[in-house]
Amino acid sequence: MDKAGKKENALEMIRCFDQVKGLKVEADRAFASASHEEILAGHTTDIYFIKTLDILRELGLENTEVTVEVFSNRPGVFAGLDEVLRLLDGKVQELWALPEGATFVAKEVVLRIRGVYSDFGPMETPLLGMLASASGWATQARAIKDAAGEKPVICFGARHVHPAVAPVMEKAAIAGGLDGCSCILGAKLAGLEPVGTVPHAAIIVAGDTLRIAKAYDAVMPPDEPRTILVDTFKDEAEETLRIAEALGDRLDSVRLDTPSERGRVTPELVREVRARLDMAGHSKVKIFCSGGLDPERVRLLSEAGADGFGVGSYISAARPIDMTLDIKEVEREAVAKRGRIPGLSPTDRLVRIQMI
User: Fold this and answer.
1) What is the CATH number of the domain that holds 268?
2) CB atoms within 10 A of CB 152
3) Which end of the chain, N or C, is less surrounded by CB atoms within 10 Å?
4) Would 42 be classed as within a structural domain?
5) pLDDT band at 192, cuts 50/70/90?
6) What is the pTM of this model?
7) Is 50 within the bounds of a domain?
């Protein structure tokens, strides 16, 4: 859609307290999640920023130029910049930021903005939320990827978060270093294709893993890897050999996802499956592990011979990295709240961003 089309569908930007009082929400609204238009119109900001606009207008200060800086409360991996740029499109004069995927330390400035406060000030709430959530997910993803090294890691976290933010989470995980994700929209937004095999549900409905494996092989295009779950009904090593014998060279990998009730996926299980595959002449078949993985378990399973990993809750449950926005200049004059140093923070890591 072109910019003209976007403007036609845009909601009126909230600029005063009276607009908030008059805002109505449909009784038959399908979901509580905010639409893109509502976010851009300021519907998800905190009310005190709208009150600020009324106050500045009363004082004749609505056109005051400020420079603000955003910093974090702990180290992490920077993510969410692309959404922030769209949020601020047309609202700021200049913007500097860390590159997407860059690491940062606590209190380091990750974003600097210059513009008229009334133009972008009300966007503080969604801006900080975008960076806090995305950077939290990206940070957890980086920890997992560091543990896996060169071995691929796929994000399986969409089922653990609200669907409105699942694509944001999985895209942030990829920014943190993961190799792909299962959520269709998350993958597409990252310029990738979604990755995943069939769930246990398909095998349970069919009643047999081998039956599903053969059907999967028959219906999937040749370039889609044949990865088959092997922990649904039988011993994992036994099921692995059944599938390997049936699919032969077409089998790319088996997936171990043993539930906690059966002890989860262990290094010993990975070693056994690897050994039995090799002994049966299937050394090219890889082992993909999932199920409650964290960096320590990824390291252990990798050392045991696992070739790839699917990680969900460790990433999706990431604690947001608190972000703070401070005004550091008013009309180019250094200023700060008590306890902070007035003026721009010294840094050579920020990159000037060409706004959309």
Assistant:
1) 3.20.20.70
2) 16
3) N
4) no
5) very high
6) 0.94
7) no
Residue 104's DSSP bridge partners are: 76
Residue with tokens 């806090």: 132
Report the pLDDT value the prediction gives residue 4, as an integer from 0 to 100: 45
Cβ-count burial of 125 within 10 angstroms (0-12 exposed, 13-18 middle, 19+ buried)? middle
Report the sign of the C-alpha dihedral through residues 85, 86, 90, 92, in that order: negative
pLDDT in tens, 6-55: 555 679 999 999 999 999 999 899 999 999 999 999 999 999 999 999 99
What's the CA gap between 313 and 323, in Å, rounded?
23
Measured CA to CA, the distance from residue 128 to residue 44 in angstroms comes to 12
Q: Cα angle at 43 between 26 and 89, to 5 degrees?
A: 130
Mean pLDDT (whole number) for 61-76: 97
In terms of Cα–Cα distance, which of 186, 153, 154, 185 is closest to 170?
186
- Residue 287, CA atoms < 13 Å, CB-side half-sphere: 33
Q: Answer whether residue 1 is part of any domain.
A: no
Range of the domain at 217: 136-316
Cβ neighbours, 10 Å, residue 111: 25
Distances (CA, A) of 326 to 22, 37, 69, 181, 351: 30, 26, 5, 35, 19
Q: How many CA atoms lie within 13 A of 90 on its CB side?
A: 5
